[in-house]
Specification:
Strand order of the largest sheet: 1-2
Number of strands: 2
Radius of gyration: 28 Å
Structural class: mainly alpha
Length: about 325
């Protein structure tokens, strides 16, 4: 038997009172989640925080209606039953996970919550024989279905086009600062700085195994160095560049990727085949960096090409000359 599942019950086994109790606890949880979303977003996206405050109030209203119906039908004692007590029932992601999500991802998570709640109320309404309870559950299903419209109303009230555009720009800027900028710096460093040692070794030894080992060492060492440097030199509090862990991961991983790209072709035993493929990979890497600079950093494409492609070609030539000499 799978641990933790022995005490879980099927939804079909719940009594009408337990279904109502489950609905009450679910509304309490959802209201709490929306308020936590609001707190997470309040500092950077106050208008979106106001939207989630309004959605939490909506859930509070649903909870009150459910409690009143429970009191009228079953009395004051509400059974303790939550989503995690029901086998196969939908669950909510821990709120702390959303701290790593973008603004749009949090909005999408909220929409998924409303869809799940609608499905639950439809199933719950089918389980009860009491007309008033069935009507309430059906009304709540319709309300959850209409929450998308209510969310749009709240957005219109708290999040006008100007505010939404401003928040979207802020979210995009944060994405650039936290992920793209350190990742791009890492990719440039890993791709360019490892060119000379890898190709110097290649042309000096014409031994693919030795070149592969040098390339792996250079890429791994550069990745670790860049990752720790990025994470350690700025905690993001003053600069607003975001979590040092995220930036360190982006920089370290992309640095290693940049170096491994033209090291791994030396897994091929034939020296000239491996070198030809490695040079093609270098060409692709350098143009990819120029494209990323142009798209996300708004660097003019000609300047990006001169900075990256021409610069990388010079480093490659230096490595080849040193190794060939």
């Amino acid at each position: 038997m799978i641990p933790g599942f022995a005490s879980r019950r099927r939804f079909s086994e719940l009594s009408e009172q337990e279904v109502l109790a489950l609905a009450i606890s679910s509304e309490e949880d959802d209201a709490r989640i929306y308020r936590q979303y609001a707190e997470i977003l309040r500092a950077d996206y106050p208008s979106s925080a106001a939207v989630f405050d309004g959605m939490a109030e909506e859930e509070d209203g649903h909870r009150r209606m459910l409690i009143e119906r429970h009191q009228a039908r079953f009395g004051e004692m509400i059974p303790l039953i939550r989503r995690e007590h029901v086998s196969g029932f939908y669950t909510r992601k821990p709120v702390w996970l959303t701290k790593n999500l973008t603004l749009e991802a949090i909005r999408a998570e909220a929409e998924a919550m409303e869809r799940d709640a609608e499905k639950f109320y439809i199933a719950a309404a089918a389980r009860t024989q009491d007309a008033a309870t069935r009507k309430l559950l059906g009304d709540l299903a319709a309300a959850e279905q209409g929450h998308e419209h209510r969310a749009h109303e709240l957005e219109a009230e708290h999040l006008g086009e100007d505010a939404k555009d401003e928040e979207d720009r802020a979210a995009h800027r944060q994405f650039i600062l936290t992920w793209v900028q350190p990742g791009l710096a890492g990719l440039m460093d890993g791709s360019v700085s490892t060119l000379a040692p890898i190709f110097a070794t290649a042309f000096a030894t014409q031994n693919t195994h030795t070149t592969l080992l040098v390339g792996l060492a250079a890429a791994t060492g550069a990745g670790i160095s860049m990752g720790f440097t990025e994470a350690a030199h700025d905690d993001g509090v003053i600069s607003g560049r975001g979590s040092p862990l995220k930036r360190g991961l982006a920089s370290g991983i992309m640095t290693a990727v940049g170096g491994l790209g033209h090291a791994l072709p030396y897994l091929i035993p034939d020296f000239w085949t491996a070198t030809t493929i490695a040079m093609i990979v270098v060409f692709i890497e350098l143009w990819a960096i120029a494209w990323i600079q142009n798209k996300y950093m708004e660097t003019p494409i000609l300047r990006a090409v001169v900075q990256v492609v021409v610069g990388g070609a010079l480093v490659f030539a230096a490595g080849a000359l040193i190794g060939g000499g």
